[in-house]
Amino acid sequence: MNCLSDWLARLEARNREPIVLGLERVQAVRQRLGLNPDFPLITVGGTNGKGSVCACLEAMLADTGYRVGLYTSPHLLRYNERVRIDEREVVDADLCAAFAAVEAAREDTPLTYFEQGTLAAMWLFQRARLDVAVLEVGLGGRLDAVNVWDADCAVVVSVDLDHQGFLGDTRETIGFEKAGIFRTGRPALCGDAAPPHSLLEHAQRIGANLLCAGQDFQWETEAASWTLRVRGAVYPALPRPAMAGAHQFGNAACAIAALWSLRERLPVALKALRIGLGRARQPGRFQVIGHEPLRVVDVGHNPHAARALARMLADLPPTGRVIGVLAMLADKDVDGVIAALKGRIHHWHLAGLDAPRGLACTDLARRVEAAGGVCRCHDNVVAAWRAACGEAKAADTILAFGSFLTAASVLSETPPHG
Questions:
Q1: Domains of the chain, start order
Q2: pLDDT of 63-107, one tens digit each?
Q3: Could you give the 3-state DSSP secondary structure of residue 349?
Q4: For a 10 Å CB count at each end of the chain, is N or C smaller?
Q5: Are 289 and 296 in contact (CB under 8 A)?
Q6: Which residues contact residue 308 at a Cβ distance below 8 angstroms, ignoring those fewer than 6 apart?
């Protein structure tokens, strides 16, 4: 099997059973493959913001001259986005070789799509002779596949409600799951302004070296720059993050604080931090793909992300209307997302998602209307996007959001214009 699309179809076909979280299966195959990296690992988890932190880390480390591996999920348009070495996506042939190696080693051990992909990524990283790898948690942390490796530094960017069916329905239970990536005697960071007690207690219980936003690292913003303080260190005159939104200061601060905690093993110069911050980008995070009307795509799919979107919309110049394009998965907090944005979106174009957990457009419309919104249903996301673009005037803003699948549909339909 040499074609990447064939491999992915095979893995997806296997993945139809319910997810059973646990590390035993991944650990067994990892040991058969001999995946014991001798380079530092930075593991990044959190409800939201982890992709942005990973992007900042990759850029700043690369600008220092390190050979960097980055593993993220999910992807938007191509599976290759998930595995990057030296800031370039791994090619199909290398991914196929990695999948074949994992397949041979797993024998009769069942692996999920994500677990097999995680092992394949590390197989590639180990052969690339990296200086450092950045691993994004897929779900939770404690029982996530990336957690079979001990992080030299673990970051929990934020803690809020999402994936409650797997992680629990309170911030305390979710915080405990996310804190599972912390390790005894190693740096651990929390970027949440109000960290759950469960996270703090777990870090203390295992003896992790925890740094918390607002206590161990703080930042001050100015018109064109900002300053970060990490315990005794000061990082002055930093450029504003390239990614949009005030919350990106916190994400950037987490990335720099993580590098500070590893400064003896991975020294990074202030110049590299500044250059990396100025160019680090993550597709699908308030990504502007056109102007007049302003066209924006965001992968936000939970109330925490929706509140950030509402703040970003509020910061836009008060010109025209905001037109929303929304499609979501049924197991998300749909009402919470709508509630966070109902005061900002003037008209909604809705669609169902062609996915096993996709929410039907009629159900979505019922919820938008219950919140007082004016909406219209469409056959699919592309049709909803086209209708929104046809309706919008030059001064309006169109925001497509609600799922990685929603963002991917729009991005495949409309190439970015800047």
A1: 4-279 (3.40.1190.10), 287-413 (3.90.190.20)
A2: 999 999 999 999 999 999 999 999 999 999 999 999 999 999 999
A3: strand
A4: C
A5: yes
A6: 48, 245, 247, 300
